[in-house]
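User: Structure with magnesium ion, C-alpha cells only please.
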Amino acid sequence: MIGILRPYLQYESLQDIPVRDLLAKGIRGLLLDLDNTVAPWNDKSLTREVKDWFDRIKAAGIKACIVSNNRLPDRVSAVADVLGILYVYKAAKPRKKAFYLGLETLGLKNSEVAVIGDQLFTDVFGGNRLGLMTILVSPIDEKEFAGTKILRLMERMVGRKARFTRNLHKI
Ligand SMILES: [Mg+2]
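Assistant:
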C-alpha cells in the first residue's frame, strides 16, 4: 500500500478502539468521519455501543468533532447534538482545509489529535497529509453515497485490510 494511504491503526469498528490506548498515545481530541463511521449512511440512528464509546471518550477528557463531507447541516448536527460533540459539515476531505477547520474547532495541536474514518482516500489520506494519527475502521454497512462506491473500487486496488503497520504491541 502507498504510504500516504496507510492508516496508523485499523479496527473493525469505532467501539473497538481502546480509549486507554488513545490516552497512552497522547491523544486529546478526535476528528471523526460521520457516514459509515459513527452512523450508517444517511441514517441518524446510533447504536448503544457507539453511544457508550463516546461516553468513555468524554469521561477520559478527550474532545470530539465530526468532520463530514456531508452537505446537509441538519444531518450532521442531528448526530453531533445527540452525542454532545462539535461538528464541521461540507468539509471537502481530503482537502487540508477540512482538517485545519477541525483542529481549530478542537483547539488542539496536530500531535494531540487522531482522525477516525472508514475511507482511505478521504479520511486516511487527508489525515496523513497533515501528519495526524489516522485510524481506519470498517464501514458500518454497504449503503453509501454513489461517489463513494468508486472510491471503494480504488480502495480494493490498493488493498485496505489487515494493515496494522505500527501495531501498539509490536516490539
Ligand atoms: Mg465515511
